[in-house]
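hey team, just a heads up i'm posting the complex here instead of the shared drive bc the drive is being weird again. everything in one block, sequence lines first with there labels, then the predicted structure for the whole assembly after. its four chains so it's a bit long, scroll down
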Amino acid sequence: MRHPHDPSRYLLARSLSPELVERDDIMEFQLDGTPVGGDDRQPYLERFIHGAIYEARPDVHAVVHAHAEAVLPFTITTRPLQPVIHSGSFMGAHVPVWDIRDEFGDTNLLVANMAQGRDLARCLADNSVALMRGHGFAAAARSLIEVVRMSVYVPRNARALLAASGLGDVKALSRGEIDARAAGYKPNSPETWRAWEYWARRAGCGHLLARRTDKPAKKARR
Amino acid sequence: MRHPHDPSRYLLARSLSPELVERDDIMEFQLDGTPVGGDDRQPYLERFIHGAIYEARPDVHAVVHAHAEAVLPFTITTRPLQPVIHSGSFMGAHVPVWDIRDEFGDTNLLVANMAQGRDLARCLADNSVALMRGHGFAAAARSLIEVVRMSVYVPRNARALLAASGLGDVKALSRGEIDARAAGYKPNSPETWRAWEYWARRAGCGHLLARRTDKPAKKARR
Amino acid sequence: MRHPHDPSRYLLARSLSPELVERDDIMEFQLDGTPVGGDDRQPYLERFIHGAIYEARPDVHAVVHAHAEAVLPFTITTRPLQPVIHSGSFMGAHVPVWDIRDEFGDTNLLVANMAQGRDLARCLADNSVALMRGHGFAAAARSLIEVVRMSVYVPRNARALLAASGLGDVKALSRGEIDARAAGYKPNSPETWRAWEYWARRAGCGHLLARRTDKPAKKARR
Amino acid sequence: MRHPHDPSRYLLARSLSPELVERDDIMEFQLDGTPVGGDDRQPYLERFIHGAIYEARPDVHAVVHAHAEAVLPFTITTRPLQPVIHSGSFMGAHVPVWDIRDEFGDTNLLVANMAQGRDLARCLADNSVALMRGHGFAAAARSLIEVVRMSVYVPRNARALLAASGLGDVKALSRGEIDARAAGYKPNSPETWRAWEYWARRAGCGHLLARRTDKPAKKARR
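-- predicted structure starts here --
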């Protein structure tokens, strides 16, 4: 996520399998990907995805890059990934597909420098999600909770769309529905918190939620 | 479920991820969704699904609303979800698809008031399951055990039908088979209890079954 | 399985979810499904599947009936389930589909008496597996280990065939390959035991294998 | 893997379900499959897959044979398995399909002697992966870590390709991309180690990684 006090910096784990990341593994970077304060731990090679999106999109405070298997088919075919289930609305009406080959020719497909990151950010433009051909996706949002949500629901929406594609024409969310859901979203709504609590427990860090203000209130009432 | 002693009320958990619900999380509501007794805990936004169905269907004593992934493709295509496996018979011969957009235009797709709940209940009519376009389904039954069963078997039937659709024409259950299964259903039959016991253990609440009357009998015999 | 000492009897658990069955849950039945020795515990309703096959097939010493999800599509379409992977060879070249409706009209699809069981056994004939329309399958073999193997590999073969069907024409095992595999099968071969050991551990009963004769030998050698 | 000190020998577990293999289960073989040093434990019947590939390919130091379900559809249809996701690049541009029936007629499909192993190795030729019709695949690489990687990503690539095939024409990796990824691969790169560490933990042997040289360095810095 973008540094909460300094918009010219962002936070990201050192190069480590996400399941193993602990609090102490978080590093701080300048937008160009340089570690802050001489931190010489190994950073993720593809951190430029994050920095380039923060650079291009001041409204974005959290970015996720993932290889979720369910989205891969939509990165290598011309079938557009579009929101068809309500929880998928946050990907927006248009999900562009970025092909690193268009600008950089034959590469190892990894986003290994700021030029590549910026090209991806240009493709993302004002959208929330960009698919990356043969690789995965990048999603950008106003908050950490929103990119986590997209990490869960973009693949889920992709699975529903893939399955439905075998059954015939698909009825997607309308533009009005996508807008209505975006307008009604509140980062601290009970619905948002309910999912956040569940995901945190699934991820093994439910204990970090204990200091949430609505918990003491609940305990006091009982 | 509908309140066992007062048909004008129903029981539903406070807004909480289902996996985390404990006994003390159950709230009591009037059919219009008003919490009983000044309970000020956060209720589910979509509780109107439940109240509107109880209101329209005196025969119904339990309702489930879910987003089961396997049914989603049938909510966004014109392919009807029909029972094709014996355990899916309880969804009935006809499974209507409710599209909130038909009556309410562009919304966030959530059933957020009684007017929307009643429209869904009208679509459900005398059937057991209504699909909700781009969202999930609602199922209604005479008992808790029956809606739990539909929560398990409606998605299972959907997966079987989806897979079979890729292989050619599908032989569905006949109306006579659906009726024969419904006629033969007994909520306390050994077959029903066998599954109930298994699901309770899978859900981590097998200990709640210990007081069942057939258990002491079995222990006594050994 | 058929009773090891009395071919006119068979062993089957009392009506209980398979995952919960323990040694003491095994009951003894006559081939017509009557419990032996006045055992008044609740038997499986569908035990007639087992008895009718033992009655018709003296070569069969173990029977399994299951609802494995992967085979269901092949029970409701005209696409034949055929062996396409080596581990699926034991289902044989021909897998008939039994439709209870052909002989008994509209039923609840359950095999609830010997007449229905015998009709299923007639459909099975000399084959190893019969699919049951909209329901599942029954498999018959010379030993317990062989029906367990079919319980694992018949669904796996079905999944491979289903997936391959979307890619084009499928190359099945030849009759000669099916025969070669059947001819080479030895119930106590290292390959058979290797899988048996793995399945037993997965099923939580690996401790029952400790008395196997090759274990002491192995320990002695080290 | 090939013996690190004697290229005419290789290491492979005794016949045991892979999940159960421990350090003491590793045996040593000559390339023709003869156990070294009179080890009379039961070897894998199909060890000839390994020996024949080591014999034909001096560049290969590790071989894996597996039945991964996701690749099976590509072994029984004419649809080629090709790399479509970046992590699948290591299978190479061409993945031949070996059919034991072509040379050996009707068999039990197992690679049970050196003649069959050598025929498979001929089909593999200079490629990294050979599919085995109705059976699985064999993969060859310069190191253990690389065959483990293929064990993870070849099936993953197969699943992505299978799903994409239902959506329309598929954009595969270009030859240049495959080459670029192969050229950039370093067995001790942070990216390689990151995955290795994750897989080791998933496999329950993360403790074996503790002696890795970059770990003490990290501890020293903190």
